C-alpha cells in the first residue's frame, strides 16, 4: 500500500488520461467527416441529442466567428436582440483566448474539438496530480467517475478547475512560505480562474478571512495587511488580464457580460427556477423579474451565511475553515444561479475529494448528475422528434434537477462542518476535526 500511495499521483494522471480519451471519443461521435460549407459536422446536427454526444465546443465553432479565427472581443459586440457577433463569446476573456487557440489549426468543428481537447488535457492531468497529492485515493472521484468522461470536453471547464485546485494546493503544501505569501499566490490563481469562468473569484473572501485570522497564530494579531493583500492581488490580477481587452475593444468586452445578464432561466439552463418556479407562474415576464431578483439575492445570502458560519467556527476552535466555506459558497451559487449546466459537476468534485463527506451522499449526487447529463439531451431530442417525454426523458431530467438541488442543500451544510482530508504526507489523523485538520495544514 505504501508503494501504491507513493505512486498514486502518477496512477491518477494515467487514469485521468484514459478517462479523457473516452471523453474525446464520446464527443467525437458527433464529429465529421461529412461537413457543411461552414465546417459544421452533419453528425452534430443529426445526432447531438439523440446519441448524447453534444458539446459546447462543437456548437460554438459557428456563431462566434471562431471558424473565421477572429481574435476574441476586440471587434465584437451584441445586437439589440442579444446576439453576439464579431468574435465576442459569452465567457470571460481567458476562456475566449483558449477557444481562439484551439481554432487556429482547425478548419471544421471536428478539428476544433480535437485541438481543443489537446489544449485542455494538460489542465486535467495537473489537477489529477494535485488532487492525488492532497486527497490520496479519493482522487478516483475525479479521474474514474463518469463526470470527467461526460464533461471533460463538453465545455472549457478544465482550466478553471485547475486554478481553483491549484490555489488550495499552494495554501496547503507550500509550508516554507508564510501564510500571507501563500494567500497572495493563491489569490492570483483565483483571479486567473475568475477570468476563465468566474466562480473561483468567490473563494477570495474566505481565503482573505483565513489569512486574516491565521495572522494571529503567526504574528500574534489579526493580519489585516495580509487579508487586504489577498483581496488586492485577486483584483489586480483580474484588472491586468481584462484591461487590454477592455481598452482594445470595450464594446466587445462588455458584450459578454451583457449577454449573461440577459440570459433567461429557460429550458436550456437546468435550473430550479425553470422547473420549480415557472410552472407556478402564468406570466413569463413576471417570472423573469422574480428570477432576476431572487437569484442574486439568494446567492449573496448563501455567501454571507457561509462566511459567518466560518467565522463562528473560527471563534469556537481557532481556525477559519476557508476550504469548507468556499465549497459551501459554491453550493449556494450552483443552487440559486439561473444557469446550472451539467458540466458544473466538475467544479464541485474536487471538494468531494478535499473535504470528508459521506460516500453515500457523493454517490447519490453523482447519479443525479448522470441523470441530468444524459436525460436533458434525450429530453431535447424527444421534444424535437415529437415524442411525448413526460414518462421518460422528462422524468429523468427532473430527477437530475431536483436530485442535484437536494444534494447541494445537504452539502452546503456538510461542507461547513467537514474535516480536511489528509494530504500525501499523512500528517493529519483520518478522524481529525475541522479545527485540527485546518490547523495542521496551515501551520507555518
From TrEMBL:
Region (Disordered) residue spans: 424-444
Gene Ontology CC terms: plasma membrane
Keywords, alphabetical: Cell membrane, Membrane, Transferase, Transmembrane, Transmembrane helix
Lineage top rank: taxon: Bacteria
Cell location: Cell membrane
Membrane topology according to the record: Multi-pass membrane protein
GO molecular function, one term: hexosyltransferase activity
Cited InterPro entries: GT87 (IPR018584), UCP010361 (IPR016570)
Keyword Glycosyltransferase (UniProt): no
Protein name as annotated: Putative membrane protein
Species this chain originates from: Hoyosella altamirensis
